[in-house]
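Q: I have four molecules that I believe assemble together. Could you output structure tokens for the complex as a whole instead of separate predictions?
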Amino acid sequence: MDLSYGPEYDEFRAEVREFCRNHRPAKHRSRGIPGVTERPNPDVLAWQAKLIEHGYAARTIPKEHGGYGAKPDIIESRIIQEEFLAAGLPLGLSNQGISMLVPTLLEVGTAEQCAAYIRPTIYGEMIWCQGYSEPGAGSDLASLRTRAELDGDDWVINGQKIWTSSAHVADMCFILVRTEPEAPKHHGISYLLMPMDRPGIDIRPLVTMTGDATFNEVFLNDVRIPAKNIVGARGQGWHVANVTLKYERGMLGSADQGQSGIKGLVELLQEETVGSGRAMDLDHYRDRLLRLQGRTLANKYHGMRLLSQSINGEQTGTEGLITKLSATELAYDIYSLGVDVLGETGTLYNGSPYQAERDWQKSLLGCFTGIIGGGSANIQRNIIAERGLGLPREPQVRFDNGRWEMMPSASNKGGN
Amino acid sequence: MDLSYGPEYDEFRAEVREFCRNHRPAKHRSRGIPGVTERPNPDVLAWQAKLIEHGYAARTIPKEHGGYGAKPDIIESRIIQEEFLAAGLPLGLSNQGISMLVPTLLEVGTAEQCAAYIRPTIYGEMIWCQGYSEPGAGSDLASLRTRAELDGDDWVINGQKIWTSSAHVADMCFILVRTEPEAPKHHGISYLLMPMDRPGIDIRPLVTMTGDATFNEVFLNDVRIPAKNIVGARGQGWHVANVTLKYERGMLGSADQGQSGIKGLVELLQEETVGSGRAMDLDHYRDRLLRLQGRTLANKYHGMRLLSQSINGEQTGTEGLITKLSATELAYDIYSLGVDVLGETGTLYNGSPYQAERDWQKSLLGCFTGIIGGGSANIQRNIIAERGLGLPREPQVRFDNGRWEMMPSASNKGGN
Amino acid sequence: MHFGLSEEQTMLQDMLRRCLGERLDLETLKRTAGQPCDPDLWRALVELGVTGALIPEDHGGSGLGMLEAEVIAESMGRSVAPAPYLGTAVLAPLAWQLAGTPEQRERHLAPIASGEHRYGVGLTEVAGAPRHFGKVTLEDNRAWGRCYFVLDASDASHFLLTANADTLVVIERDAEGVSIEMLNDVDRTRGFAVVGLERTPFETVGESGGAAQAIDALLAAGRLMLAADTFGAAEAMLFRARDYSMERFQFDRPIGSFQGVKHLLADMVTDLEPCRSLIWYAAHVFDEQPAERVLHACHAKSLASEIGKFIARSSIEIHGGMGFTEELGLHLWYKRIEANRQLLGGPETVRHAAAVDQGWVQPLTATAT
Amino acid sequence: MHFGLSEEQTMLQDMLRRCLGERLDLETLKRTAGQPCDPDLWRALVELGVTGALIPEDHGGSGLGMLEAEVIAESMGRSVAPAPYLGTAVLAPLAWQLAGTPEQRERHLAPIASGEHRYGVGLTEVAGAPRHFGKVTLEDNRAWGRCYFVLDASDASHFLLTANADTLVVIERDAEGVSIEMLNDVDRTRGFAVVGLERTPFETVGESGGAAQAIDALLAAGRLMLAADTFGAAEAMLFRARDYSMERFQFDRPIGSFQGVKHLLADMVTDLEPCRSLIWYAAHVFDEQPAERVLHACHAKSLASEIGKFIARSSIEIHGGMGFTEELGLHLWYKRIEANRQLLGGPETVRHAAAVDQGWVQPLTATAT
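A: Yes, here they are, computed for all four components at once.
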């Protein structure tokens, strides 16, 4: 067990720390997340450019596409994160364009596509949204129905997308559409790049139970885009999308969330008075806190184990599949305890008079995005059981008119 | 809401109470359950005969078969139970012959079968065991493979049964066997009555994790029984068995178990010292106790609701299906708390020195019989969801050589 | 023997479900969230006799009991009805009847039955809530202090408040020195407020210092009604999830045909049904065996809160992404259940009260902040 | 950076698994349940260096650390090995090293490493167990009293006991006034006893009154080892359930293809893996950051106990009826997990200790009975 990064990284850490001491972005920040809920303002753009210049953002993107061109090194990335967090400095931009589209283009895009899109994306000048989910295609994403037909030199797109988080600020959309309606469902999909300023695109905000509208529905009515805006071959979109889905899983359910939640709970239980004592003195609240602390610590060290596996190029097995399920459940339980300890005050919300400093109720509501987004818990369990434990796949059956039928699939294999 | 049984039952209650005041069985009782783990001794038989004479056992069995011949009246049965419990008197014999075989014979048996078996069974002179489960047929009972072939005037039985609880003391066995191997699985089964003294029957005790051997395996090797020992028609055994299964569900998972468990926990938490105070003063133990008390009360009143539905001849819907699942989970949680409160002493077992008065650990182990016996929790959930909530049935598929296939069943219907 | 609702009670239930169902479609609910009660809805409920249910016939009510009140509360929760039912139709009539003088009952009950008076009720001083305890002091026939979390406060004409934990006072909304600060709570279907008093005239319900037992009963009644409200809302969410699981196809089959969803629904209903039996029983003993009131109301509140939370969360999860949009409106039920859980004591608090009631432990002594 | 087992540690693990796997087939385990440790097995373990793992090389051991001890404990649990590992190979060597004098270490460590001495260890006085607290008093160089739940007592040549919560004493089994009463516990793979002392000569480990810190460390080490033992047993039960669910056909399909079973297995492994990470980390800081010892050992014990219970129960359930027969032997693992849960403090007790360690609350003061 060696939890240090080794002396060979001391110099790099010193260098990052030096940068952090000497640089600070302009103070002008807003409440939204730049590139997700709002367009980055000039201060954000300037900070991003400075980070790229020093290699603290877009670090491994090739120089020819505007990046810093460093070799991938997980420890270096980690050190950057640690030092920036310690110094209270904002990290580089994080949005779906940067985390999902750019790696995909680098892996399967054409030279022309890379040249056109990567640079503006990493510099925060081009904002992307993701056009995957549809009202009828959630867990079963491959059943999507939005279709695109070639008409001369254009794709003509019709259909509807949902859960498109930055659609209202985006310049572009990487979108999955059905182009070969006759093919089996995973083989009829293509991956297109759609400018959001085209006629026929109608964006409507989708308000969630927290009252916020971070998501959108996007209606597509005869939207025309150039034929060359396809990534990968026709009908290969499912495979192209899986390149990015891989990146998305890493984004959700970070084990770190729990740490600040526990810290908040400890303060809350020490400050809240119940009867004549502190909530901390009531065993039932404290015991719940301690159970949560135990799970949080376990998730934290589990994250270190996974990091160590990546650094050492070890294959991650079952242990890598479970983090999302584990972290989202934990967050829900943490915020639930916060609300419970507050009693009636726990119902207060959104800056009500007499509310506790922290909005525990809103955090609790916010958990549902994590619980459901990026694959429901049951889908996660299937993945863990099938890929992790090697249990048989589900039978491919169809329920039609009150009767079960076998799917006409050539490969109804249950093994892995 | 009217929780009284009505003044018309006052006289009956007075009569039962009078009986209880004036009668008492001989004191000679053993630790086993008569008719299940041991044969009833003469004292038990005498008490049973007296109860039948007064109509407090075999109350609704026709006079011609040795019973008391009263009209079925749930309230009268309930009053008998209540008064006997209050007086600390043992109720009549309860075993699988009385609770399952006798009702079946009354419903579908021949006059000759009724005449031969009912009287000795209700008087405790003939003990029955149930030959349903097999090593390969547990949840999926209908897949049983023990077969019987007609050879002249005899059935010849070959196969193996398991979980046969009173096999070692039984005179007879009501057994499910496959008689039409070509028929679909539910249609090839017959229900036979097998004397346990026939050659070819080998009974081996099955020791469970508590260390007790209340169950047996029964090996059947060319066991010959008369052809007339069939109940219902050939191939109708599944339907005949369902008559009795209906009765078995009522036997398991009684809601009353929880009441005495809670009482025991209250005493335990008040007596046990943890640190310088009582366990009852530690909120986390007490809060667990209170949660369990709430669930126990809910189950108790739920039982009253179901009783009321039966009395009033109302159809019982979903609410009748859930009691087993609910009660077995509750018992497990109750005994777990008892063990936890005892700390290290909670590991002690089977009359160890220094053990608490009550054997919480053994009670906890004993829960598994309830959790698994009479249908696993997942089978219960399927029944609740399909019959209670109207959700679609499982698809009838088969996993063979790593591939899924549709079952060649004519009716792969998902509805109900 | 009959355990359950009588024919009349079932008719009352049907009538209310119909009335609320017709008036409270999803659009209306979404539109009115956060606003005071709709006067039309309230008039309809008054006409159905909701406000007079617990009031004797000679005071203009229908003289019904706690089980009928439970039926009404359950229906309110089922439709997440934005109406000040608990304060006006349950707690205020009970307070006057349990602690008031004959003259007061004569004067105050009829206007409640007729819908003329509406009551906000503040019991936080005795409900064992952490952080903010109300404290009202009485001197020279005037009241001073603050009461937090006054229920059903938004349209109240009167406030019924505890003072010194053993006295109940009623204050008119327009009286001298009354200040009302509305709170922003997660459930927007009912109005909670902090009511401040300064040199405010009041009327004591019955005798000063003589209402301790009545306050215990009010607290039990409030907890029981919140349990019923949660139960109704949870039942609605369960059956919406059931229906959705049969309509929603993924992987070419209804999601309710997957055991993952199927067994979750089975667990939900396995929790729900015994809880219904407990709540019915608690309502029954409230009238018939007053010594059992507190224990059963606390357990009803605790169990309904716990299973309500489980069912609410699971129902949203079964609905997938749509479950947490405003579109389906499920969040209205979810939030009502979350709020009910906290009001008049969260699960741990009411369980502690049940332990105190059984003599297992001493009460936590409350100190005002 | 490397989080996890080194190559050497993995080799140690493989070696132990092989050794224990070969010697402890199901028949042997069933036959020996309730009997003292099998001398052949013990000799094999001594030869593998199990007893010397934590003992410095110059005292005849191999000078390994707590992570190696964890690896061994995990393997013991995995095979439900009937061996007095915890007392002899972990707690006794730690006690001499943490509190003993150089002369004592010289004299006592080598016989442990060589397998000559075997220790029963009694820490109940400080473990916060309810009901029975041991109490040993020292006077005129003689010891009086009783110690309950002395671990690994059946074949012990020595007993290591706490006295007055700040002193560690060692007693020879054959010394004057020693009485040993074996307990009948649910797990029959290790031996627990009540040890009585009357005018018994003893040797103090280090200085009288100077072992408070060492006792804290011993308690932490014991809890951590029990967590590892539970973890190993739980992992074994999870994979047996996985294998069984693929072999066992019902309704013409492996039961593991039903989501009901599949998702349960997924939940089991989702709980198990982070617990492994926590236990490894706790073993690491035991040696490297002593200030973190108590907190992490308590959390490891608490989490392993909770998930161990869930996994043990679920594994039996997945096995259906066969799961609770003696035939499959699953009950041996189940019972070991249940017993570990209670030893040296149940989940609530160790969580309380974690809270005390963080300064969140005061310790419960223990009174002897």
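A: One point stands out. Chain D touches chain B through 61 residues (CB under 8 Å).
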